Amino acid sequence: MLVTEFSTEVVAPPERFELFSEVTAQTHMPNRLRSNDRDDFRANMRVLRLGELEVSTMSFSHLEIVRTAKLIRQYDPDAYQINYLLGQEGVLSLAGDDTALQVGDLVVMDTSRPYRGDVHAVRGGWSHMTVQFPRKLLPLPEKTAQSLVGVSLNGRRGMGGVFTRWLTDLNTRADEFTPADVPTLASVTLDLLASALARCADAEAALSPETRRNALRTRINAFVEQHLTDPDMTPQTIADAHHISLRLLQQLFAEIDTSPAAWIRRRRLERCRVDLANPSLKSRPIQTIAARWGFADPAHFSRLFRATYEMTPRDYRHLAVPFSRGPETGGVGGGRYASVPGRTSGLVPLYTL
Fold it and tell me: CA 126 from chain center: how many Å?
């Protein structure tokens, strides 16, 4: 079982904070916790287990976390914790220095070093994500990683932004993954993190060629997703945007048995497929949907769609049956729909490697 869901509301208000403390001591490690809302501590948590790496997404209003030398002596997993503030602000104190944290920041913590954190929510929804894994797994020299412990890193742009978008997508799609996906998901998470940290520390030369290559491919995939509506996006513009040759771009996609042009076409077709299955877009003409995602020729789009999904766009729209799964959780197309006949069912992950 890869995903575990938890809510303090399964017990009475006076028992909620104690339950949260017990659960986080098991999922992460024992810490000394305090909250201004202890009398009725409302918190939710989702844990995605990827082998030795865990991605936890939480929501709570206020929490003070203290890791003392005594607690470290009692139990230390020798791990890094990467904290991403989705909807929180706060202060981190490490070795006597205070660091202000705001929404969108990343901060690296070492479970072997004492610290104190005090964070509070500034908006609703998920407020905090934590990636925890043994230090030995990070494909980056220990000296480089340690130089960034306790430092506020920008998770809103650049490689930090690529990494946080990946984390957000992991949380959104957590229930779609199978045990067979674990090695790839863990590897991509660590490679993207290492690349983001190396960029911050000006130490990209310390990354292995494989880590740099995987991170580059993921950045390219993210770029493609962001520009699918641009009819002028071509393999050459992608290569230029990433300061690489067209030949290298083609080699990167050849490693996953495709080409840049075929990948762009696949992602655009998938966006069209999701829109065609969306009941709120039922009145929108098919050619309008196709044009939105870069297919200017309706006849050409229809042929490609039929070759990919074994039916025409019109037939697909008629057969797609929407169903409700509670509040929307985001992801490609903004919703989830029942699968219909064809070669592709479900949604294609944003960052397929």
Answer: 13
> What pLDDT digit, counting tens, does each position of 213-265 carry?
877 887 788 788 888 888 889 999 999 988 889 999 999 889 888 999 999 99
Q: Which residues pair with 67 in a beta bridge?
A: 115
Q: What is the pLDDT of residue 206?
A: 60
Residue 352 has pLDDT above 90, yes or no: no
Give the number of other Cβ atoms within 10 Å of residue 73's Cβ: 8
In angstroms and rounded to an integer, the radius of gyration of the C-alpha atoms of the chain is 22
Sheet containing 79-85, strands listed edge to edge, beginning at the edge strand earlier in sequence: 3-7, 44-50, 53-59, 128-134, 79-85, 105-110, 152-154
Q: How far apart are CA 336 and CA 173, in angstroms?
A: 11
Residue 144, both tokens: 């480089």
Helices (runs of H) and strands (runs of E) counted in the chain: 12, 12
336 vs 235, residue with greater confidence:
235
Cα(72)–Cα(65) distance, rounded to whole angstroms?
14
How many residues does this entry show for the chain?
Answer: 353
Question: CB–CB of 116/57 below 8 Å?
Answer: no
Q: Can you tell me which residue has the tokens 């992602």? A: 267
- β partners of residue 70: none
Report the alpha-carbon distance of residue 283 to residue 278 in Å, rounded: 10
Spatial contact of 89 and 152, defined as CB atoms under 8 Å apart: no
Rounded distance between C-alpha atoms, residue 39 and residue 29, angstroms: 23
- Rounded Cα distance, 142 and 21, in Å: 30
